[in-house]
UniProtKB/TrEMBL annotation:
The keyword Oxidoreductase applies. The keyword Oxidoreductase applies. InterPro entries: Aldo-Keto_reductase, NAD(P)_OxRdtase_dom_sf, NADP_OxRdtase_dom. This is NADP-dependent oxidoreductase domain-containing protein. It holds the Pfam family Aldo_ket_red. GO terms for molecular function: oxidoreductase activity. GO terms for cellular component: cytoplasm.
Amino acid sequence: MTTNNIVPQRALGSQGLVCSAQGLGCMGMTAFYGDFDRAAQEEESLRTISAALAAGINMLDTAWMYQSFGAGGGGNFTNEELIGKAIKQHGRDKFVICTKFGI
């Protein structure tokens, strides 16, 4: 996939990391918005991540708590699993991952 870099890129820190000025919030791809069909949701979410990457968005925002608990498609469906599939599809070097956790 060719990146058009529609979204501006910014240097992040002093180690050469380049991050898009806008990120993609991934919470709604696996959590909090009711029952869903896991297979269909996963397919649509991976297409969304691919489209964001094509637009120059390489920063994905996730968190450990972004998951469904057995809704719709049976079993837990975590955001980290979904992002892992996108990484496998496009390559780890294409993404900057932003995460957070509760104490």
